[in-house]
Amino acid sequence: MKKFASPGTPMPRKDRPNVLPLEGEIDLHVSPTVTASLNAMIEKKPKRLVVDLSHVTYIDSAGLAAFIEAMQKVEAYGGKFALAGLQETVRSIFEISRLDQVFQIFPDVDTAMSG
Fold first, then answer.
1. Are 74 and 49 in contact (CB under 8 A)?
2. Which of 12, 42, 68, 106 has the smallest C-beta neighbourhood within 10 Å, fewest atoms?
3. Domains and CATH numbers, the chain
4. Can you list the positions of beta strands (E) in 66-113?
């Protein structure tokens, strides 16, 4: 199975500091680095934080927990937390767990940033 493609900690692109692009599988082994990246972004208290999941092929409960924790932290200071670009396999995981009713989910990053 393909693990997280880029080595090290996922980082937002310089031109989009409020967007965290992820890829591969977000599982028990990867979620601590995802949490660390999200926490670093949350410290800056952006009005809107978007996680780009367009290149994510799988997410497990540890990955879902990382997103729930991040969403709670962002909402605690009055910001908005959104997910964007879910592939069908990942979307079905959110639907089965009913988290599609909890998260703001957008078809792509641009829509999430403006929505």
1. yes
2. 68
3. 19-114 (3.30.750.24)
4. 80-84, 104-106
